[in-house]
Specification:
Elements: H1 9-16, H2 19-28, E1 33-34, H3 35-39, H4 46-58, E2 62-67, E3 70-75, H5 77-106, E4 122-133, H6 137-145, H7 147-155, E5 161-164, E6 171-177, E7 183-194, E8 198-207, E9 210-224, E10 227-239, H8 245-267
Antiparallel strand pairs: 1-3, 2-3, 4-10, 5-6, 6-7, 7-8, 8-9, 9-10
Helix pairs in contact: 1-4, 2-4, 7-8
Amino acid sequence: MTNAPEPSLDQVFQALADPTRRGLVAILVRGPASVSSLARPFDMTLSAVMQHLQVLIDSGLVRTEKVGRVRTCRIDAAGLRRAEDWLARRRTLWEHRLERLDLLLTAPSDRTGRLDMTDRSVLVSSFAVERTYPLGPEAVFAAWADPGTKARWFAGANAEHHELDFRPGGVEVTRGRSPEGRPLTFESRYHDIVPAERIVYSSALLVEQSAVTISVTTVQFRPSGGGTTLVLTEQDTYLDGHEQPEMRESGTRGWLDALGRELAATVSP
């Protein structure tokens, strides 16, 4: 049987945009309830309440089960957690920006108006990305291990330099330039490699010669039917606001999509 696709984040927030559906969620977070008991507080027909419940079910916020003649509804914690995680990331970013603003307003300056060394900040964040590819773990792992293949999907055509020493203790270096023309270096050191199972490495993004983001990344390869589910988990320390968590996660998703295109090309007739 084919699994139903996971509801989108848009569906979750669209479901919560309606006050009646928020009221239903507020009741269900206190515990499971039958459809008839859920309908009592609302000045509408049972059929109308069922329509609202169906929206919540489709969005992944509520699930139901029928025992005998009674249908019971309960909160699906995973659906609420997705909305909570999204809001938490936005809150972290906004709080970081407020901290930066506070530094700008309160830090002493010299006669030229430049901020002194108190203009510093640290933001720690993490994210995980999952992708499923059509080839087995050995083939997906090989795309990380081979220097030529890795350069195509990871470094890309705009990179000025890419080198890969793929072994525990080995280093990978990619050099390029920002849109403003500033030199960029992304340097990784591999700490643990288990073929077709996992890769663990630490990285530093440098603008000119200054480190702006330090990260630790774990990549896991899991057999999935005839293909591979790849799970990448990254923990990041962002220094002085040069890079933001959203930018880093978006970039990672982009090169994992490029890996998918690279792998798809190898199985195309």
